[in-house]
Amino acid sequence: LTAIGGEPQDWARIYGKVMDYAREEDIPVAISPGSAQLHNKNETLYESIAASTILLVNKEEAMNLLDDRGIEHQSEIVSVMRALRNLGPEMFSVTDGSEGSYFMTQDERIHKLNPFPTEKVDTTGAGDAYAAGLMSGILEGESVSESMRRGAANASAVITTYGAGEGLLTRGEMEKSLQTHPTIQPEVIWEPKINL
Q1: How far apart are CA 14 and CA 104, in angstroms?
Q2: Could you give the CA distance from residue 158 to residue 133 in angstroms, rounded to a whole number?
Q3: Could you point out which of 2, 89, 143, 188 has its C-alpha 20 to 30 Å from the C-alpha of 106?
Q4: Each residue of 105-156: pLDDT tens digit?
């Protein structure tokens, strides 16, 4: 579920219908709210996030959502990621430009992936390209690590051209990019302590 333009009551109605159907049919939902949703936050948005399987946002959007709900956090990424758990999604991905991407799994481990090196021309659409690559891996049953790498490959290709849709990778181009950067792998940067 992603960006839907229009007045808040219009997109809220559509979000509500999609989430109701997903609940009835037990369908997992990934949500990547667009600017209309993030500028006109309402209960439908937060209910949709809480019921989602995966939330996909950038760091600025994540902090905005947390601030809007009065959830305490610091600007450091681990604090932001841990605070996002309070919004209710099972898992979530946060992109942070040249700092890379982060993913918190259901077991609350936070994974970090540095971006693939490339010449940056225009960052428009990089987050959406990352989300598309990440979700392609998840939907095909890939590991979190491989899914994040797909996201990074797709994002690194999009920022080499102007515009949001230019540069998106085909499956073959994705495989080639992944093979070109075998050493860029996610690492776990935080995990909950287990008290025995």
Answers
A1: 27
A2: 11
A3: 2
A4: 999 999 999 999 999 999 999 999 999 999 999 999 999 999 999 999 999 9
Q: What is the chain's alpha carbon radius of gyration, rounded to the nearest angstrom?
A: 17
Secondary structure (3-state) at 55: strand
Torsion of CA 139, 118, 109, 84, to 10 degrees: -90
- Give the span between the Cα atoms of 185 and 195, in whole angstroms: 29
CA angle (164 as vertex; 35, 144 as ends), nearest 5: 80
Reading the block at residue 25, the tokens are: 């049919």
Q: Which two tokens stand for residue 130?
A: 């990352």
Residue type, 120: K
pLDDT digits (tens, 9 = 90+) for 137-146: 999 999 999 9
pTM of the predicted model, to two decimals?
0.94
Which residues contact residue 35 at a Cβ distance below 8 angstroms, ignoring those fewer than 6 apart? 3
